[in-house]
Amino acid sequence: MSLFSFKVVDKDLKTKARAGVIKTPHGIIKTPAFSPVATRASVRTLSPEDLKDVKTQVVLANTYHLYLKPGLEVIEKFGGFANFMKWEGPTITDSGGYQVSFLWSKGEEDEAKVVKIDDKGALFKSYLDGSLHLLTPEKSIEIQRILGADIIMALDEPQSLNMPKKLAKEAFLRTLKWEERSFFAWQKLNKKGEFQALYGIVQGDLDKNLRRQSLDFVLSLGFCGIAIGGEAIGSDPKITSEALNTISDILPDEKPVHALGLGGGPEGIFEAIARGIDTFDNTGITRMARTGLLFIHPEDGGKRLNKFRLDIKKSTFKSDEKPLSNVCNCYSCLNFSRAYIHHLLTSGEILGLRLATIHNVFFVNNLMNQIRDSIINGDFVDLKKKWLG
């Protein structure tokens, strides 16, 4: 019996949107689906029970962060990060490539300080103690084996939108080499009976030829699934759409497709799903919640212009008795007013962070359920029009 499989249940006739089922050793994922990001084996402010209550199907953890802290010895002792955090559902890990290749250049305090990137791997300094570490494709696969996720990623070097052409081409070609090495390292583990589903990552920025070359390469090796990476995917919905347009017409039915760091809120979600995306992760949905940016439905006045969200910290909500959304059934909306959540967040109360995060994650998961039903019922385009016009 296969430990991992993907099946398309239904397709939209006018777009590339599809509803499917991903089977993993720890349960099924009904797609399209959103994966909250548990960077350090925790979705900030939410317990595993909270995640279940807001209809979460799968969570994604970060290889780079968990490798450095608490470290592989601790994670291995608990039998993987899911057991460590007491999450019983399907799991994903990224490869660490984004952190060592990209975030370091943005001046993030808790990200890698890269010393050198070459075909061998990425040499970086730990933000914790300055110790040197070499992340290679083989090392990434080994770390992810210990982390124990159901779905893991090949090591890649993502491209940024502003990367010089020469460096971008080098990163693209290096990613192909790293993916091949990741695949062979994964095959060796499979022979030992330690199965995890490995996804190859499609890079190429906005270049159609490079994206298609990358996809062809991933498919030729026989990865279990496809991930779409690069800064373009986490950027403006229009740029994301342009990047996905390069390959959406040749995505295979038999492979699940994951968008790494998909940005853009409801606009980005609809555009990505219309182009064949099955699952995606996003840190912005929970990060925005913690800053007071909360999602609202079209019935609440949500639209493209306000990006389907309100800033609950604004003084206009100081005495507002209404819930965050009149059509949302999350715990926060059913029990508390805008005024109370405004008060909590502007007063620095931790409960405010939790209630806001509950709402945003529930909102996106509920939207995924609506989209899935619309694909099966044949009215995805109508739902998309209702939201985006």
Describe the SSE topology.
Layout: E1 5-11, E2 18-24, E3 27-31, E4 33-35, E5 37-38, H1 48-53, E6 59-61, H2 63-77, H3 81-85, E7 91-93, H4 97-101, E8 113-117, E9 122-125, E10 132-135, H5 137-147, E11 151-153, H6 165-191, E12 197-202, H7 208-221, E13 225-228, H8 237-245, E14 257-259, H9 265-273, E15 279-281, H10 284-291, E16 293-295, E17 309-311, H11 331-335, H12 338-346, H13 350-377, H14 380-388
Parallel strand pairs: 4-15, 5-6, 6-7, 11-12, 12-13, 13-14, 14-15
Antiparallel strand pairs: 1-2, 2-3, 8-9, 9-10, 16-17
Q: What does this entry look like structurally?
A:
This protein has 389 residues and is of the alpha/beta class. It folds into two domains: 252 residues, TIM Barrel (Alpha-Beta Barrel); 90 residues, no CATH class. Helices cover 41% and strands 17% of the residues. The chain has 14 helices and 17 strands. The strands form five sheets. A six-stranded parallel beta sheet has the order 4-15-14-13-12-11. The protein has a three-stranded antiparallel beta sheet with strand order 1-2-3. Strands 5-6-7 form a three-stranded parallel beta sheet, with no helix packed on it. β12, α7 and β13 form a beta-alpha-beta unit. The mean pLDDT is 95.
